[in-house]
Design goal:
With 209 residues, the protein is mainly α. Helix content is 72%, strand content 0%. Helix 1 runs antiparallel to helix 3.
Length: 209
């Protein structure tokens, strides 16, 4: 996976976030500030513009620039968390010109660690961690079983999707949604859903090559 692959991932993430912007905002209107989709759409559009202008020379630089752009453009908790995830993943990749599947898995794990550390969150609290953590486990398991990258990323995406759906019956324990108490039950977490969409774009970038 070279720089072009990672540029394709971010472009695909921007496209799917844009197409699902209203749905993400609708999810957020039930338990948050009703701006998740709009803010992420703006952030990923800005990231694509920054990548086009600066033309990063490595996969790690693509992810680091994406994270650094998302933080101010998305704003709020989502901007900080996604910014931390992409920057940590980019730093894990370093300056390597190409990335193998194991290095990608390690970078995604670093991104998850960044989210966990910044948000002080863990699985079961109705956050994006509920999509990211099972996705990472599925990817590592698939690679350990010798699956090819497209198949391993399909497993990652399926686990993220299942993790996002599993937030519906959860009670929110973090963020604005936690203020609702038991009223947060019955709604899918918008951050878990957007995380699933972004990882789906990673799968699609691999499938398109």
């Amino acid at each position: 996976m070279d720089t072009g692959f990672f540029l394709d991932w971010i472009a695909g993430a921007a496209a799917v976030i844009s197409s699902c912007r209203d749905h993400l905002t609708q999810l957020d209107s039930a338990i948050g500030d009703a701006d998740h989709g709009v803010n992420l759409d703006r952030g990923f559009a800005a990231a694509c513009a920054a990548l086009s202008r600066q033309r990063p020379a490595s996969p790690g630089a693509v992810l680091t620039l994406t994270g650094s752009t998302l933080i101010p453009q998305v704003g709020g908790a989502s901007g900080s968390l996604y910014g931390a995830a992409f920057r940590a993943a980019g730093q894990a990749l370093g300056a390597a010109a190409e990335v193998d599947p194991r290095a990608l898995a390690a970078a995604l794990e670093a991104g998850l660690d960044g989210v966990r550390e910044l948000g002080a969150s863990r699985e079961g609290e109705k956050t994006m961690v509920d999509a990211l953590a099972p996705a990472n486990r599925a990817l590592n398991d698939a690679l350990a079983r010798g699956l090819r990258l497209p198949d391993a990323l399909a497993a990652l995406t399926a686990a993220a999707e299942a993790g996002a759906r599993a937030t519906v019956p959860m009670r929110a324990l973090k963020g604005r949604a936690s203020y609702l108490g038991p009223r947060s039950v019955g709604h899918e977490d918008p951050g878990a859903r957007s995380a699933s969409l972004i990882l789906g774009a990673l799968r699609d970038a691999a499938a398109g090559r």
